[in-house]
Amino acid sequence: MKKISENTGWIIATLTIIVTFALLFIALYANSVTVKVNQLNIRSGPAVTYSVKAKAKHGEQLQVISRQGNWIKVIYKHRTIGWVASWLVTNGHIKDVTQLSEATVVLDPGHGGSDSGALSANGREEKTYTLIFANLVAKKLRARGAKVIMTRHSDTTVPLYKRPQVATTNSANAFISFHFDSSDVANTASGFTCYYYHAGDSKKLAQAVNQKMTDLPLTNRGTNFGNYLVIRDNAIPAILIEGGYINTDRDFRMIQSSAYQNKVADDVVAGLQAYFKTH
């Protein structure tokens, strides 16, 4: 009888420990956040000046320990404790986007306001045409059900550093910045290029869009690495399109052409669709 009592006590104690750990586990995972950017730095303290202890990937979950201002103390993979910026994570799970109707896309018409951008031979400003192209792409994306956010809607000045923040704040799935090239000597260069800074998803996005830019009257210069702030300091897949050389007469005639504008816009939309299908 004594032996049975001892066994019963041992079983109850074991079950109590199991239940306690299970409840702790559930409580821990119930208070979690999900990484909403491609790569998230987990730092040793609540500021960007602290060293990076680990890097979490898009969609991974982090268990919350506490919060301090705009920073969250988390546990990563059951072993690493550190701090992450609250604006780079979200509550709950992130659904993978596989089609345009599920996507949030940020379009960035380059320059604007006091920043005219490059000039054509007759003094036309780059900022005018970046907005035209971005508006066309926005219209076509919305027609396919995508959510589109513009970094500017009119001829206004938007600081460079604020443009990537629009993508992060809105948990966007892609960011495209529109520009036009300019050569040191007029009429010496031609063609369009898709730039990326980060290898991985940004490079894949650049390739997907560039591959759809076919049958255009200008030379396709392919994809290339570009050290541009709006794509370098971007936490989501981001590319920059140089749609032709504004100070090359032939290119500028195309840039002004509604046929070219619409064809480029159609190709960008098709490239985004292809990217989301295979991403």
Short key terms for the protein model shown above:
SH3 type barrels, Aminopeptidase, single chain, 279 residues, six-stranded mixed β-sheet, alpha/beta
Structure description:
The protein is an alpha/beta fold and 279 residues long. It is 36% helix and 27% strand. The protein has 2 domains: 2-91, SH3 type barrels, CATH 2.30.30; 100-278, Zn-dependent exopeptidases (Aminopeptidase). The chain has 7 helices and 13 strands. Strand 2 (39-43) and strand 3 (52-57) form a beta hairpin. The chain crosses the membrane at residues 9-30. Residues 30-93 form the SH3b domain. It holds the Pfam family SH3_3. One of its GO terms (cellular component) is outer membrane-bounded periplasmic space.
